[in-house]
Amino acid sequence: MHLRPIHFVDTPVGLPDGSVARLAGGMLWFAAYELREGAGRRIVPVAEIAGCGERAMLLHQRITAPRPPLTLGERVLRFDQPLVAGILNVTPDSFSDGGAHVDDPAGAAGAGVDMLAAGAALVDLGGESTRPGAPLIWEGDEAKRVAPVAGRLAAAGALVSIDTRKALVMEAALAAGAQIVNDVSALLWDERSLGIVARAGCPVILMHSPDPQAGPHGGSGYADVVGEVFDWLEARVAAVVAGGVDRARIIVDPGIGFGKSLADNLALVNNLALFHGLGCPIMLGASRKRMIGALSNEAPVGERLGGSIALAMKGADAGVQLLRVHDVAETVQALRVWRGLRDRALVG
């Protein structure tokens, strides 16, 4: 069974008690669920969900529970409204900005600080490309790329997440000042990763990919991409909690573009609200992805701003808490307008 919040309303003011619910403690309210069981679909008002069994009530409780903020040193990451994570790659071959900051820790850190000045809540720092066909980087080289940048950013007061699947790189970046681990393999590629995250007590972002131990772009298709990705992430969250990580410090990412077709990606974006049933904040990483080019006459990577903003706003409308983007200033501006509209709607 899965529940997708639907029938969103502008404000709960004036509506009967119990007829609407607040989505994950955020700025959105909804009046019903699409209840999915196998191939079956039916609409259930929020007020009637208690009659749908224990699984439905568990999902309802996860969907409506506020996501506690993360206190990370002097910084607090709140999840009651959508935030921007700026993408900072220090690689020669990333699909979007490869080569821009290679072998220049000071310049890379400066670019990260510029993202913070533009309104990013955190900087997501990566030293290995995860584009299809990218070569595997030796962990020592990857650590040398990211640790000096993480240290400079932390010294500047930045909140840094380290985008890596390698335990040694996690250790080096965390020691340098990074405070969050973002792993495209959901801590499955390197057997030491889970222990490192648990011992550090740091938040972790678990991303879905079909075969994370082989690489992020494997897989052979889905019968029900939305249900299968949800179930995989639900099992993975449970395993990571069992491994010693506090559930309140787990963020989930459905992995747009990783081992998924255009139809798969569109289905996941259209059903993002369903992933609140995992009970964790959600990260959406769709910025400049191939799906935008596929829908816009094969627009090259540098000409996908409009599509990136459209996907980010779709995420905000679904209650996504973290938007991982390349174009920070533009996305922050779009979110400020979105927030203004939401604020006005809440008061009638």
Short description:
The chain has helices at about 55-65, 105-115, 140-155, 165-175, 195-200, 225-240, 260-270, 290-295, 305-315, 330-345; strands spanning about 1-10, 20, 30-35, 40-45, 70, 75, 85-90, 120-125, 160-165, 180-185, 205, 250-255, 285, 320-325.
Q: Would you mind describing this structure in some detail?
A:
The chain has 348 residues and is an alpha/beta fold. It has two domains: 2-64, no CATH class; 70-346, Dihydropteroate synthase-like (TIM Barrel). The chain contains ten helices and 14 strands. The protein has helices at 54-64, 105-117, 139-155, 167-176, 193-200, 225-242, 262-270, 290-294, 305-317, 328-346; strands spanning 2-9, 21-22, 29-37, 40-45, 70-72, 75-77, 83-89, 122-126, 160-163, 180-183, 204-207, 250-253, 283-284, 322-325. The strands form three sheets. The chain has an eight-stranded parallel sheet. A hairpin with a 2-residue loop joins strand 3 (29-37) and strand 4 (40-45). Helix 3 packs parallel to helix 4 and helix 9 (305-317) runs parallel beside helix 10. It is globular, with a radius of gyration of 19 Å. The two termini are 35 Å apart. The mean pLDDT is 94.
